[in-house]
Amino acid sequence: MDNISNHRTSALESVLAGAGVHVRNRDDVMQKVAAIAQDGPDKLLFLSDFDQTLTRYWVNGERGFTSYKVVEKSPLMSEDYREKARQLADKYHPIEVAVDMSLEEKTQHMVKWWEGNHNLMIGERIKRSQLKEMVANANIQFRDKCEVLFSELDSFNIPLLVFSAGLGGTN
């Protein structure tokens, strides 16, 4: 095994040994990662969620905004919008986090929440320039080293796909 392979294996073993990392079959994970490395970056795709995965949960000691909160809390939005969006959140968030409800049942409610928010936003006739201003003034931040991650993915031409139940196209 060459030095680069030894370094990568050692780095992976260090990650797998970390606090809070639980792996059922360590050898299986090592084999899968080795196969990914063997195939090279041309066959790799990086997939991530956005809210509180790429972004911080806490920002400056306060709860960081989700993409919806960026819009909901913005002074660029009408008071009527903010109130109705808050009412939707008050109604549907408890359902989103309920442990005694099936995924199928929750999904129906989450679709209604999304549709309600979407319709409210359409009524506001938001412009892209306003979204940029909302993001710039919101309590939202990428996690540490996201820029490094994005740069590394770009340097190897590895696509990054962000799947999210939140808003898209706000950059």
Automatic annotation (TrEMBL):
Q: Which EC class is this protein assigned?
A: hydrolase
Task: Please give the superkingdom of this protein's source.
Answer: Eukaryota
Q: Which GO terms describe its cellular component?
A: cytoplasm
Name the InterPro entries on file. HAD-like_sf, HAD_sf, Pyrimidine_nucleotidase_eu
**Bilayer-spanning residue ranges:** none
Q: Which reaction does it catalyse?
A: a ribonucleoside 5'-phosphate + H2O = a ribonucleoside + phosphate
Enzyme Commission number, as recorded: 3.1.3.5
Q: Which residues form a coiled coil?
A: none
User: Which GO terms fall under biological process for this protein?
Assistant: nucleotide metabolic process
Q: Does the keyword Magnesium apply?
A: yes
Could you confirm whether the keyword Nucleotide-binding appears in this record? yes
UniProt cross-references to Pfam families, sorted A to Z:
UMPH-1 (PF05822)
The record's GO molecular-function terms, alphabetically, read: 5'-nucleotidase activity; magnesium ion binding; nucleotide binding
Checking Gene3D superfamilies in the record gives: HAD superfamily/HAD-like, Pyrimidine 5'-nucleotidase (UMPH-1), N-terminal domain
What keywords are annotated for this sequence in UniProt?
A: Hydrolase, Magnesium, Metal-binding, Nucleotide metabolism, Nucleotide-binding
Q: Which PANTHER family does this UniProt record tie to the protein?
A: 5'-NUCLEOTIDASE, 7-METHYLGUANOSINE PHOSPHATE-SPECIFIC 5'-NUCLEOTIDASE
* Assigned protein family: Belongs to the pyrimidine 5'-nucleotidase family.
What protein am I looking at?
A: 5'-nucleotidase
Q: What is the lineage of its organism?
A: Eukaryota, Metazoa, Porifera, Demospongiae, Heteroscleromorpha
